Amino acid sequence: MRDGSTLAHTQWRLGILIAQIARRWRARLDQRIAEFGLTEARWLALLSISRGGEGMTQKDLAARLLIEGPTLVRTLDWLEGEGLVERREAAHDRRAKTLHLTGKARPLIHRIEAAATGVRAEILAGIPEAELATCLAVLERVATGLAVPSPPPPAEEAREAYRPDSG
């Protein structure tokens, strides 16, 4: 850390650790769900529709998944082709499509949820509930901070701040 402070080093380590945890957690879950024949994009879309409620619009799902509409369309085309999702015209806007799970999707979602529950239990085993609650509270504050767009740094400051070894 350029300023050498303990706080700056801790913040840097936290950023790296959050990224590593996210990748490893997702990889572990992908391993478990691979047997169902679903890619990450597909199982995330199914779970989001399931958790978000029937009749969610494609636009809302894309926002929930933090992806662009065209990317989602390809995923939904596949899910619809497999008979897992139906698209219907939205009552409030005929240009919009609402998403509905089929009867074929429900048992699969239960299997995905069970796999996710098992992975969470393995990863978080032995961590007391109070510590998990504290960790969650801190991460929620981090997420809130990330939801607020930050202004770009002045050009000179941005050049000085970037160093390939700064990670």
Structural write-up:
Residues 146-167 are annotated as: Disordered. Pfam families: MarR_2. Keywords: DNA-binding, Transcription, Transcription regulation. It comes from Roseicella aerolata. With 167 residues, the protein is mainly alpha-helical. 65% of the residues lie in helices and 10% in strands. It is built from seven helices and three strands. The chain has helices spanning 6-33, 40-52, 58-65, 69-81, 105-124, 129-147, 155-161; strands spanning 56-57, 85-90, 93-101.
Short description:
The chain is mainly alpha-helical. The protein has seven helices and three strands. The longest helix has 28 residues, at about 5-35.
Question: Structural class per helix/strand content?
Answer: mainly alpha
Outline the low-pLDDT stretches: none
Number of helices: 7
Into which percentage range does the β-strand content fall?
Answer: 5-15%
Which strand order do you get reading across the main beta sheet? 1-3-2
Helix content: 55-70%
Q: Give the SSE string.
A: HHEHHEEHHH
What shape does the CA trace take?
globular
- First CA to last CA: what distance? 10 Å
What profile does the largest beta sheet have? Answer: 3 strands, antiparallel
Number of strands: 3
Q: Mean pLDDT, as a whole number?
A: 89
What Rg is obtained from the alpha carbons, in whole angstroms? 20 Å
